[in-house]
Amino acid sequence: MDRHTAQLENDRIVQDILRLKEERGATILAHNYQLPEVQDIADLLGDSLELARAAASLDSRVIVFCGVNFMAETAAILSPDKTVLLPAGDACCPMAEMITAEEVRSLRERFPDAAVVCYVNTTAGVKAESDICCTSANAVEVVRSLDEEQVIFVPDRNLARYVARFTDKEILPWEGYCYVHDQYTPEDVRRAKALHPDAEVLVHPECRPEVIDLADYVYSTSGMTRHACSNPGKEYIIGTEVGMLHRLYRECPAAACHPLSERAVCYNMKKTDLAKVHAALATLKPGVVVPEEVAVRARAAIERMLAL
Questions:
Q1: What gap in Å lies between CA 123 and CA 168, rounded to an integer?
Q2: pLDDT tens digits, 80-89
């Protein structure tokens, strides 16, 4: 298929997605790491916190979640009366798979006086065993809000150590990590700075401490967008998954943005494409449903976060 024919087919699929979306009363949510063409058809593009808030407040009958499984689960937990679709049904988050509900219960037995904070990048079962959820955007605020002086933080060790910089509480990190952000090294930062000496370095708090130490700013993905768009005409090195560059190019065209590393690709985030979004809207599958006994307890942890 030549480029012109491929573009015509792409345009046809997009138009049919828009038609089906209207017929189904659907809203398309997409994470910042999705493919550019998927980002472009989304009704809302954002990070985990923004998308969680949207899932809780939408009036739509159907939510099409272009992301990974824990995100669709969160939407289903907050909107049990809605149909939640995950177009790429096999799109998982490896970090979310690094801890189980049973392991959280074991931690509670070992540290009975500790609060359990779970990153939103966890399964519904882990959320159900936790006191409160957090995202990379609000993790520090969430931990500071707790009465307990000891906090079990799961599953991301790097985010846990970042939070520990801003609180006197004893943080007990689980040894999970995001393989995309954990791969960055100080050498990557130095190499990028050599190529772009006038650029500010913006990195995600899932990065290793030694990488964070070399950054100018540490932000969630939406924080990166706000910073770049509010400081036009500047140059930035972006230390997060490469899909973020598309949003920055689109929303902050006056900012010159460069990836910290071209290797920073989440392959599960790239499993969703236009054909899968179209198929999900056409068939209302694959759907995501969380058992009510799990959803009730997980919802309490998520809503406690949203209340902040």
A1: 28
A2: 999 999 999 9
Contact call for residues 151 and 171 (beta carbons, < 8 A): yes
176 contacts 129 by C-beta, under 8 angstroms: no
3-class SS of residue 264: coil
Kindly report the CATH number that applies to the domain delimited by 184-259: 3.40.50.10800
Residue 267 CA to residue 152 CA, distance in Å, equals 29
Superfamily (CATH H level) for 3-92+269-290 = NadA-like (3.40.50.10800)
Torsion of CA 242, 208, 152, 175, to 10 degrees: 90
Domain residue extents for the chain = 3-92+269-290, 96-177, 184-259
Residue 153: other Cβ atoms inside 10 A? 28
Of the candidates 138, 129, 116, 112, the residue with the CA atom closest to the CA atom of residue 50: 138
Q: How far apart are the first and last CA of the chain?
A: 51
pLDDT at res. 1: 64
Q: Which CATH superfamily is domain 96-177 in?
A: NadA-like (3.40.50.10800)
* pTM: predicted TM-score of the whole model, two decimal places: 0.93
